[in-house]
Write a structure and sequence with these properties.
The chain is α/β, with parallel strands linked by helices. Helices cover about 35% and strands about 20% of the residues.
Length: about 150
């Protein structure tokens, strides 16, 4: 999970920095962070479209210049021809409904996330698809290591 936070530092989103990794057999297959598509101006440079339009967090995902970290990880794997069916997605945040649908269709079998995200439909669809979804608790991990 530490690596997801390192990847999130590349985020160009003004609202939330998210990082994601796709892993199989203890090998990182692809990474992603949230930000605008390649060759386009980033929100850090031109401001946040969602802020300008007054769109609350968790609503109207399509009205954003950026891609989510999970989307970028899946796209990077496809771009480089990397098989991700059966992989685990590690993410700093629980996926939204749009990412959830992509995760399901990409054949990802497990999600480990650190921070929650208010999206009941995403949680419902992950349950229906029988994906393993595991919250990561950094505090309990520190106690176990002590």
């Amino acid at each position: 999970m530490d690596i997801t936070h390192l990847v999130a530092k590349r985020s160009t989103c003004l609202r939330r920095q998210v990082g994601a990794l796709l892993v199989m057999d203890k090998k990182i297959l692809a990474t992603g962070y949230n930000g605008a598509p390649s060759k386009l101006d980033h929100c850090l440079e031109i401001g946040c479209l969602r802020e300008k339009m007054g769109i609350p967090s968790g609503e109207r995902h399509e009205l954003c210049r950026g891609l989510h970290a999970e989307q970028n990880a899946i796209i990077q794997a496809a771009y480089h021809g990397v098989q991700i069916r059966g992989a685990t997605l590690y993410s700093t945040h629980h996926p939204c409904i749009i990412c959830t649908k992509m995760i399901i269709n990409a054949g990802i079998k497990r999600i480990v996330y650190e921070e929650g995200y208010a999206d009941p439909l995403a949680r419902q669809m992950l349950k229906e698809a029988a994906l393993k979804v595991e919250p990561f608790n950094r505090k309990s991990l520190k106690r176990e290591k002590a």
